[in-house]
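Example 3.2
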Amino acid sequence: MEANTDLPWVLLYVKRWLAAPLQLPDGTLQERDRGTPQGSSVSPVLANLFMHYAFDTWMSRNYPGVWFERYADDAVVHCATERQAREVLAELGERMAEVGLQLHPDKTKIVYCKDSDRRGSYEHTSFTFLGFEFRGRRARGKNGRIFTSFLPAVSKDALKKMSATVRSWRLHRRTGLTMSQLAREINPVVRGWIQYYGAFGLKELYPLLQRINYYLVRWLRKKYRRLRTWKKLLPCWERITRQYPAMFVHWRQVNWHWRTG
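Structure, written as tokens:
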């Protein structure tokens, strides 16, 4: 520890860590004058602490009546009127500049939460946060009445990434495995998707889950020659899914698991 310092020892170590040079793949060291090293487990902790004082406490102090949610450097601020939203946005831009940050020009926007009660028109009526798209969606009230509510469901980008993952599994070509082995391999991933994204708007995941079924059907056709025709394949598929309804985690979620389309 350095002598004659006024910094507490913890802050001193943090300062040293932030100023540590970056080692490149060839072994050379590169000096850094900003940011935190990428890939370190401490980086998100320090970034979160910084945002807590730069954003959270600032919002609580200057706009105590405005609710907000923040995860890492993404945040949603709830304003009652457009005037208030524009005021907060302008002040927030100045606050970020004070701490050396800048609001993302493409992601930062004022969104009108359009639903059955708010029927006005606005440039932006939806936004994405933590993999969910928030927008007006059909909902059913306790009295059975259909109305439009501003609700979250899995976003298109999240669905696209999950679809790419399913495609990368190449299930239909892994004929050296049994169906139960395939289930043990993909179930943890699919279970995580369902638990997270299925918490709101589970039906939006149905096309993705059905796509997994499609690959499993192709797997059956490639593994067993006698099932090359749909006439023989479909009864076999229905028999398997009815006999082992819990083999794949997504078969437990909906009552169409034995269907192929």
